[in-house]
Specification:
Strand content: under 5%
Helix content: 55-70%
Structural class: mainly alpha
Order of helices and strands: HEHHEHH
Strand order of the largest sheet: 1-2
Length: about 140
């Protein structure tokens, strides 16, 4: 018969490959996110606001990689960068929403998504603040 300590050790041993696997699976995505954040921090301010789209191409790429992963997010970012040229009229161009994500809880939404969709998240925030609090004395 197995005691509790042995069971905990075995469950940790079983979960360790899962942790390593998740780390390796998300490594390319995390590397791209770091590169994009460094670009936005150090290189983007040199050029100023020259992008014809909202969100900017770097913000679009950061959201696409954060939400869709390294491969699909890079594909979306590359398509966007190809469209960003002086002969394009620009405009609002949001990242396609993923089919598998439900962001009913605003605390679970990545910050870059909140920044790129201010009308949606500010309206949701204003809606929750304008609701009257339930009172217990009726």
């Amino acid at each position: 018969m197995m005691n509790v300590t042995q069971a905990k050790l075995e469950s940790r041993a079983l979960s360790r490959p899962t942790v390593v696997g998740r780390f390796l699976w998300h490594l390319p995505q995390n590397i791209l996110i770091v590169v994009l954040k460094l670009y936005r921090r150090f290189i983007s301010p040199i050029y100023g606001q020259v992008c014809r789209f909202f969100p900017s191409c770097s913000a679009y790429a950061l959201e696409a990689v954060t939400v869709h992963g390294a491969v699909k997010g890079s594909w979306y970012a590359a398509r966007r960068i190809v469209r960003c040229h002086p002969w394009n009229s620009g405009g609002i161009d949001p990242v396609p929403a993923p089919a598998h994500v439900n962001w009913d809880d605003p605390s679970k939404v990545p910050f870059i998504v909140q920044l790129n969709h201010p009308d949606f998240f500010l309206a949701a925030q204003a809606d929750t603040q304008s609701r009257p609090a339930a009172s217990g004395d009726r």
